[in-house]
């Protein structure tokens, strides 16, 4: 039996009541969604694009998601808890997630990430766990919700949030399929997060190296003009940076660009006078 935190006093669909053919079809959809995850290549794609693709596969794999699906990613493990990014398959889910994360800071997704358990609501407008959130979502014509934590070694890295327009849509069957999809989805999302972070660090290092190079060039120009020491030249750049309130590298770039411009003008004048 699938374990989940359900809304009190609500009748969820029972696993044994499912039509056998529909159950087989749902399992096929789950398998197709997981195959899609396996075939997805994150290289060259933004984090937002990957989350959007995972949300689309989740909508295929989890039955009943007629209002849409959202995928949420938390900041990397060890950082301050908070949402790093999210994607949604429909405009209404995007609106719901904005209400949940940015406005009210309550809802099934937040609860599932706090408890690390699937959360089910069959009537959001009457769900006492999130009274403000539930009422707002119900007014948008969405009644049921299923939130699934994305777990890596027991640590929450995000969630999948599934919404339906009718009441009592999600039960044990949907939780079972959703949990089976959430496990590989967590790996895909987390690996993409690591890849993006590594790419950002590499870009930062490259920018730092380029900045160091242009600063060294500016120091050489100043020393050539003044005959001073390397420390004197660096201190001059630093004073200008502080006075003008711009980055040290930008000051250095300005020195180098001005020197190149003057050199080109001299060469142009000399060529014209020859």
The strands making up the biggest β-sheet line up spatially as 1-4-5-6-2-3
Average pLDDT over all residues: 82
| Strand percent estimate | 5-15%
What's the total helix number?
8
Largest sheet: 6 strands, mixed
For CATH, the homologous superfamily of the largest domain is named as GAF domain
Straight-line distance between termini: 92 Å
Under CATH, the topology of the largest domain is which? Answer: Beta-Lactamase
Low-confidence stretches: none
Tertiary shape = elongated
Rg calc = 28 Å
List the helices and strands and how they pair.
Blueprint (H helix, E strand, L loop, with lengths): L3 E3 L13 H20 L7 H15 L6 E7 L8 E6 L2 H14 L3 H8 L2 E4 L9 H9 L4 E9 L2 E10 L7 H55 L3 H15 L3 H26 L1
Parallel strand pairs: 1-4
Antiparallel strand pairs: 2-3, 2-6, 4-5, 5-6
């Amino acid at each position: 039996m699938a374990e989940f935190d359900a809304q009190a006093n609500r009748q969820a669909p029972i696993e044994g009541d499912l039509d056998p053919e529909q159950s087989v079809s749902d399992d096929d959809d789950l398998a197709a969604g997981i195959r899609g995850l396996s075939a997805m290549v994150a290289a060259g794609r933004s984090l937002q694009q990957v989350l959007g693709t995972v949300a689309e596969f989740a909508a295929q794999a989890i039955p009943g998601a007629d209002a849409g699906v959202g995928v949420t990613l938390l900041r990397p493990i060890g950082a301050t808890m908070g949402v790093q990014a999210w994607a949604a398959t429909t405009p209404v889910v995007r609106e719901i997630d904005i209400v949940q994360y940015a406005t009210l800071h309550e809802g099934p997704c937040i609860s599932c990430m706090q408890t690390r358990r699937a959360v089910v609501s069959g009537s959001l407008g009457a769900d006492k766990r999130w009274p403000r959130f539930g009422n707002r979502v119900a007014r948008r014509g969405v009644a049921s919700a299923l939130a699934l934590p994305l777990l890596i070694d027991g640590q929450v890295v995000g969630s999948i949030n599934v919404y339906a327009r009718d009441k009592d849509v999600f039960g044990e069957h949907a939780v079972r399929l959703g949990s089976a999809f959430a496990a590989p989805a967590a790996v895909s999302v987390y690996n993409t997060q690591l890849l993006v972070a590594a790419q950002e660090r590499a870009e930062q290092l490259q920018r730092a190296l380029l900045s160091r190079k242009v600063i060294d060039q500016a120091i050489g120009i100043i020393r050539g003009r003044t005959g001073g020491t390397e420390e004197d030249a660096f201190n001059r750049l630093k004073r200008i940076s502080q006075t003008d309130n711009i980055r040290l590298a930008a000051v250095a770039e300005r020195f180098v660009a001005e020197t190149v411009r003057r050199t080109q003008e001299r060469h142009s004048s000399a060529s014209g006078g020859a």
